[in-house]
Amino acid sequence: MNDKIKPAHQVGPVSAFFIPQTMQIGIGYLSFQHVVTKYSQQDAWLAALISGAIILGILWVVLRLLENERQFGMPDLFSIHSRIFGRRIGTFLNLFTVTHILLFTIMFLRSYVEIVHVWVFPQMSTFLFSLIFCSIVWYIVSGGIRTITGVCLLSFIYLMPLSILTLFIVPHAQFANLQPFFDHSPVTLLKSCYKLTHEYLGFELLLYIYPFISHPREARKWAFRSVLTTIYFYTTALILAIVYFSQGEMQNTIWPTVTYWKGVRFPLVEHIDIIAIVLLLWSLVPNICLCSWIIARAVKFTVPKIKMKYSLIVILALIIAGTTMIHSGLQVKKINDVYATYGALIIYIYLPILLFCQWIKKKCGRGAAS
Amino acid sequence: MFWKNSKKKNDQGPAQPSKSMADLLIQLETNPDFNHFCHNSKTLTCWISFINTVVDLEYIHRDLLPALYSERVQRMKDIAQVVPVDKLIETRDLSVIQTSLLDGCLMIQPSKRSQHVYLIPCPKKQARQVEQTEIETSIVGAHDAFVESLETNINLIRSRIPIPQFKVEEHRIGKLSRTRISILYIEGLANKANLNTTKQRITDLETVSVINANMLALMIADNSWSFFPQFIDTERPDRVSGALYEGKIAVLVDGSPSALILPSTIVEFFSTIDDYSLTWPIASLYRLLRLFAVAFSVISSSLYVAVLTYHYQLVPKDLLATLIVSRSSVPYDPIIEVLLLEVMIELLREAGARLPTKVGQTIGIVGGIVIGTASVQAGVTSNILLIIIAMSALAAFITPNYRMATTIRFMRFPFIFAAQVFGLLGVGLCFMFFVCHLLKLTSLGRPFIEPIYPMRVTDLKDSFIRLPTSAQGQRPMFLRTADKNRVNLQRTTQKKGKPKPDIDE
Question: Which residues of A166-319 form beta strands (DSSP E)?
Fold first, then answer.
């Protein structure tokens, strides 16, 4: 693998806004209100803010890690691993983090199929859909990081109407639902925060794409802005859900967002939910593209002989196989939980430890030099 | 794509170049239109030859021959002084002789087989007069269109760009045809890299002949597997000169009444010259109308298939009644119905385009009214579908560029099939594929959907909307021109003067 990324393959600093943004807001946006309000009912929006603040801290850790690494070569997680822990343990750690990404793609794709099964086509073949979808993904990823970033940007643009759509429930809102304020103990709030991890995950992918972003100083600002935007989206969605549903109804609604899309009516079309679910393809595609690109890069980092264009086919086949193997909604839920726990482990525990290791290594290196 | 990779220089002349003067003359003498005769006068003996179908005979008989026959010509060298021509070529190079003879030169030799010759250019070009635009008509703009003659076309452009920096470079492409191709640009404006890429792509072409500009556009396209045209072709000289002033490059082909503009972005295919004559809000609205028309034309029939096959919940209750009434007598699935009408419209369009204008009109009436109404009355298709299909056919041809319009006409078919397989989800997947394809496309190495991705907010000023001229002070960023500004920004701000502090002060 080359040490330097050619400027022709780099993307602008604004992509540090669009990429984490599209990675974070995904399929979870449809159902997270149901999960989060379980512990801290009407105060859940507070949990979204607290959780967001923690994520901003983790983002700082991520960017710190990358910036410290810049002087030693490529600022990405693979290089950090192999520099601090050596080639062998580094490869193992890469495997550890990349497995999470693979899990993410499978979870995401299968959750989408699950939603399509429930709301649009109960009989749709999971295999056929993922095959067609993954061939489009192959076509995009073969265009390189620039095309993938383009897809991220377009995804942001195309999903904008959906966030406007939520405004339609404001006339039906019962703002009294928000009261009483601050009625929950910090423990229950933290439990909600933990549940929200699943939704905020995705920004850590910056660890892999950072060397491809030009003007890192500006990019860092954009990365923070992106997480702030995500916090805004989640908090408003939560508040709107709380004022629209009663707590009892919320606990029985698996996809609150889709349910209130269903309530929106236009003179020419009804059932906006179906259109919105189809539009959500645009949330799916950048995620799968970027993740399979990262996994292909990991393969190339470990075994430089294998070209990305060939390993990509194997990876996509793995994703299709993984997606097809999950059969029921319960399994989807389970894999979502596994993914969230795994992700929480990585961002809350592993990344700070890694930053600490990097600091130790720096101290040791300096000690050895002097 | 072999032509793209092969880096051979295209400088071997036409196939089997003649070995000597004698061979060339023998080869040519078999043609009845080749004149080769000896001129004998008191003072000079010489051989004169020309091909009478490519030279201007009147000019030869009226001006050249009398001067040549006059007694002032004593030796071959006197020809230059006596004969009233601006350019007299003296050469021994056989390949030059051959191409000039075939291009319409008069050849004068001292003896029958001598290779030392004088060539006097007197070509005659059969060309149309400059006429009204037919493909890209404009209501308030200029009305002249390009013709088949390269000289006339360059004249039309040069009269609009009267500056010495305007450069015309000529290349001869085609192993046999040796077609003249001109690359036009304004020096100091056009991006050097773009210019070099254009030149390289054109000179590297390995081809037998170049018939017209659109064929050349296909040959030098970035992705020849794509069905989107990647360079704009236009028959309007004012559009070309506008593009040149913007910093783009134009390519003209001899014998072709259209010019190519390189590089292009997709939004430029949907802009017309009239947009610049209207006030900016109106022009912007028309552009948005075109955008809507394209979206409607591509998606409407596939949405019909998807909604009626799978998602009838989407249709509001009141409309549903109308749909049921209109479809109750139709025995087929929506897809059969849609394909039937779509193919019919395509047939009508093709027949109308191939037939002479007067018959074409009849075809339109027969097709549109008779077949349409009859098919509804016979219960083969539904009324509503007929409206949708007719409207989408209309919408497709709102696109000002013909080649883009045909692409848009074609694009609906994958959508229809996808809608049949996966319903709305299929339409979404198909749309995603097309968008990603556009995302990967480049035009001369520049991104094809430029103002959207890479996101350049400043270039949006002349894309889906057109801002007023005062906001168009800078050239498009995407062209990377050598001179960024159209106007002197310092001077314009000075002229504006101080900003007013408040109302009435």
Answer: none
